[in-house]
Amino acid sequence: MTEFIVTTSTRPNGKIIKEAMTTAEELSVPYVRREKRSAASIMAQYNAGIMIIGKDSFVVHAVPHSPPFFFHPNAAMLRAKRWLTAKRDAMIDACQLERGDRFLDGTLGLASDAILASLAVGSEGKVIGVEMSPILAYVVKKGLQFYHSNVETIDGAMRRIQVMNMSHISWLGEAPSKSVDVVYFDPMFQEAIQGSDGFDIMRPLTRNVPITSETIREASRVARKRVVMKDHFRSRRFQELGFQVQIRPSATYHFGTIEM
User: Fold this and answer.
1) Which fold has domain 4-61?
2) What interhelical angle do 74-86 and 112-121 show, nearest 10?
3) How far apart are CA 18 and CA 22, in angstroms?
4) pLDDT > 80? residue 54
5) Would the pTM of this model clear 0.85, i.e. be above it?
6) Is 4-61's fold the same as 74-259's?
7) pLDDT tens, residue by residue, 203-221
8) For residue 219, what is the enclosing H or E element?
């Protein structure tokens, strides 16, 4: 089951119906009227996953009776609040991000790293996140627009992130040379989804795009300061792709960098 349809919550007002129809048009998928039916019955009728539009909410069921998937930056909130008080985060340190930097997250996922990057570069900088899965990209894009953390600085950082539904190699291929300061990849996120039961609700939504030597060549052309990759500490990708590893004692993952 890979196709999706869009519907509304059970008692939609005109604004929600319009939002659902607009969402369906933007995703190039059918819009289906809810008509008091359960999500499972609609999914069974159309043999499709479903996105349910409510008041500032975008909930996805990829398969019948699956738990709902929606945007909630749990891990990012802990990291963000810690960074605001201590100005320390392993990813930000590895990327050496500064205010005003332009940052590309080539593996956006749930945008945890992008949120931290947006905090670090501030309103003077720019954070772009690319995500190949259209459904995941849409839910995360809307979540970044509407989620309220009750911390104005974090909310502002989320609102500034630009989400692009495309592959990292496509974005890099179209980008001018030296047009961003840092290009960042986290292939561990995609692999965790494929290998962990905890990510069951997301697995049907994702599209795994490998990090190849061509990707790194293009990233090195586009980056002005450095290319950074997060990976398992035993990963061979660091050596295969030409990264200098930053050893993190007792950590299950390291960061690799290519300096420009």
Assistant:
1) Rossmann fold (3.40.50)
2) 30
3) 6
4) yes
5) yes
6) yes
7) 667 777 889 999 999 999 9
8) helix 213-222
